[in-house]
């Protein structure tokens, strides 16, 4: 009979390098960031001690104390005291401390030691402490705390062997100090440790590189200039550097279509494979490079330490709408994908603030909207792709969604009433660091693979169904318009056109919008099929053909169908509509209510429709036709 595997829990403050250590011990590639809330749930892995003992390693959410009321603090506390429903009480805790911030991090360490379970302290980032002039004595600290203390650099793998030696079986005994909250022994140990650390520590007047950078990046005026500049460079880079990998995808798509056409005779099956599957899915996959670059730059900002500074800048602004800086990372994460953003709200203490943040998070334009924006924005710019002007328009799109989210948050926050408990925003600014490239690239690859899985399942299924709906039932006619009108899609388009026409759309565009409620990315492929665009050898040329076809479409009275007013209306709809069923499911889980999730879906869809209608009608008043 196999011996049961014992469990080791990693606990520590945000930014202490806990997840980096988890990766070093287990070989996993969990996301590493420099802001509270990146780890929002328990991660599991396995490691082996030098004497061959296999251990389960659990990475708990980072928290400043076990006494807070946020879901991530409750999760960590419940696991450590053994009351969690799904995670057993750990046999040993590795308490990860930032060696350069021991005065703050020791408080959590003492709370964990008081639980009277075996503890090993991992004194991480000793290099940062030494560069700051802090002289460390791990032996002295171990004597004062009554537990083993192991100095290490988790990002370089230094000290990992020594840590594994410290946790080799049998585990160290619990500290023999009868510590209870507030007793003299606890206060003496904590006071002695922190006072000695303060006396080694260099003068408070010593200025570090991080301090010098923060004088500029956290300046009340210059800080915002740099923040906006960084966001502009981010978008400009996405459009400027993605051309080459997009060309590779175009070549692959062209190759696959040529292979199928060379191997099969004409017929519905070949048409399904080329038009419905390869070209339909390809119209979405072509945007993969831009999406990966967005995740790369967000990971770069997190890993370097700048993301915490952005949260600090945003705290004052967010306070004006009833939110705190704790809501910043969930909202910023939602620019990449709303699902992890919504999950990151677990770091927020106030239940009401958490609900408001969940409600408005999908209005942060996620990466799934990029294909739509990349198709429509050039139509407003005379067909040109890339460049600084397009980056400015994209920045404006994101600003519109963000400001609307803040306005709705303020209204909703007022209606929910005051907090049941006072919420505090505690933020630790980590030192600026060189990005951890390995973790960033692995995270980007994970997100890319998740996107490709979606393209190969949900999007592929929608494209096949859409192909069938635009093909059957068939009509023996030489007029493509008559043939399409006779199909299922043609009949659906005829039914919904009176509903969407006041927003500036015809029935085909309305149908493309309907298909994108399962996944926004399919809008481009749907438009190509519904407007019967012939695929070009070059994917960029195909997008150009879609725009040309849209620009040439006219209403029966001769007015252009996709006037600037109509294009803006369509953009507005996609900024606001909640077209992601997995997000709705996650909202129901995190909010603890399907009523909240359904209410959010209905409200955001109605808001998008009304906003689109108002924008189109107002735009037509100033520029008829």
Largest sheet: 6 strands, mixed
Please, what is the oligomeric state?
A: single chain
Strand content is 5-15%
Overall residue-averaged pLDDT value: 80
- Structural class, please? mainly alpha
The level of helicity is 55-70%
Over the alpha carbons, how many angstroms does the gyration radius reach? 28 Å
Number of helices: 27
> How many distinct beta strands?
6
Major sheet strand order? 2-3-1-4-5-6
User: What is the first-to-last residue Cα distance?
Assistant: 79 Å
Shape category: elongated
**Unreliable segments (pLDDT under 50, ≥5 consecutive)?**
178-183, 194-199
What does this structure look like?
This protein has helices at 18-26, 71-81, 102-113, 126-131, 138-145, 160-166, 184-200, 209-217, 222-241, 243-263, 268-285, 288-304, 306-319, 328-333, 338-343, 351-360, 370-380, 387-416, 437-471, 480-486, 488-500, 507-515, 522-530, 539-552, 564-576, 581-591, 594-622, and strands at residues 6-12, 43-48, 54-59, 92-98, 119-124, 149-151. The protein is elongated, with a radius of gyration of 28 Å. It has a six-stranded mixed beta sheet, sandwiched between helices. The protein has 625 residues and is mainly α. It is built from 27 helices and six strands.
């Amino acid at each position: 009979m196999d011996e049961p595997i014992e469990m080791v829990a990693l606990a520590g403050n945000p930014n202490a390098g806990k997840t980096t250590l988890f990766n070093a011990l287990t070989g996993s590639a969990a996301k590493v960031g420099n802001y509270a809330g990146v780890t929002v749930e328990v991660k599991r892995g396995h490691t082996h001690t030098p004497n061959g003992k296999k251990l389960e390693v659990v990475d708990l959410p980072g928290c400043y104390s076990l006494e807070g009321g946020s879901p991530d603090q409750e999760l960590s506390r419940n696991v450590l005291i053994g009351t969690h429903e799904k995670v057993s009480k750990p046999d040993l805790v590795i308490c990860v401390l930032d060696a350069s911030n021991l005065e703050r991090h020791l408080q959590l360490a003492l709370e964990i030691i008081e639980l009277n379970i075996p503890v090993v302290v991992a004194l991480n980032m000793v290099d940062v402490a030494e560069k700051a002039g802090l002289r460390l004595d791990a032996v002295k600290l171990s004597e004062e705390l009554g537990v083993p203390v192991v100095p290490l650099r988790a990002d370089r793998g230094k000290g990992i062997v020594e840590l594994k030696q410290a946790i080799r079986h049998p585990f160290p005994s619990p500290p023999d100090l009868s510590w209870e909250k507030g007793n003299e022994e606890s206060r003496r140990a904590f006071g002695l440790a922190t006072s000695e650390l303060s006396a080694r520590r260099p003068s408070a007047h010593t200025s570090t590189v991080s301090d010098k950078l923060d004088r500029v990046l956290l300046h009340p005026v210059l800080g915002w200039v740099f923040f906006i500049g960084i966001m502009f460079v981010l978008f400009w880079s996405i459009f400027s550097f993605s051309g080459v990998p997009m060309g590779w995808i175009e070549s692959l798509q062209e190759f696959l279509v040529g292979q199928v056409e060379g191997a099969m005779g004409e017929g519905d099956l070949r048409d399904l494979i080329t038009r419905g599957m390869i070209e339909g899915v390809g119209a979405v996959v072509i945007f993969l490079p831009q999406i990966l670059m967005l995740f790369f730059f967000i990971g770069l900002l997190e890993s370097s330490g700048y993301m915490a500074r952005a949260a600090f800048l945003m705290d004052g602004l967010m306070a004006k709408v009833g939110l705190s800086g704790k809501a910043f990372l969930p909202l910023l994460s939602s620019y990449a994908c709303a699902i992890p953003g919504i999950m990151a709200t677990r770091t927020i203490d106030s239940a009401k603030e958490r609900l408001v943040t969940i409600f408005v998070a999908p209005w942060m334009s996620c990466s799934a909207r990029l294909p739509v924006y990349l198709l429509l924005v050039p139509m407003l710019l005379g067909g040109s792709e890339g460049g600084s002007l397009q980056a400015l328009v994209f920045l404006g799109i994101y600003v519109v969604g963000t400001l609307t989210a803040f306005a709705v948050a303020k209204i909703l926050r007022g209606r929910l009433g005051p907090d049941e408990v006072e919420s505090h925003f505690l933020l630790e600014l980590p030192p600026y660091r060189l990005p951890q490239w390995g973790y960033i690239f692995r995270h980007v690859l994970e997100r890319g693979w998740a996107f490709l899985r979606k393209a190969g399942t949900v999007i592929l299924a929608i494209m096949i169904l859409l192909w069938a709906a635009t093909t059957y039932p068939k009509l023996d006619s030489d007029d493509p318009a008559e043939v399409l009108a006779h199909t299922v899609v043609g009949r659906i388009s005829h039914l919904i056109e009176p509903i969407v026409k006041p927003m500036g759309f015809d029935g085909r565009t309305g149908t493309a919008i309907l298909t994108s409620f399962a996944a926004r990315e399919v809008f481009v492929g749907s438009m190509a099929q519904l407007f019967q665009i012939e695929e070009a050898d070059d994917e960029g040329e195909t997008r150009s053909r879609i725009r040309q076809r849209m620009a040439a479409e006219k209403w029966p009275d001769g007015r252009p169908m996709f006037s600037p007013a109509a294009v803006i209306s369509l953009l507005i709809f996609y900024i606001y509509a909640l077209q992601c069923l997995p997000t709705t499911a996650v909202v129901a889980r995190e909010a603890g209510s399907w009523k909240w999730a359904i209410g959010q879906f209905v409200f955001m869809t109605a808001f998008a429709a009304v906003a689109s209608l108002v924008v189109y009608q107002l735009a037509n008043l100033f520029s008829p036709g």
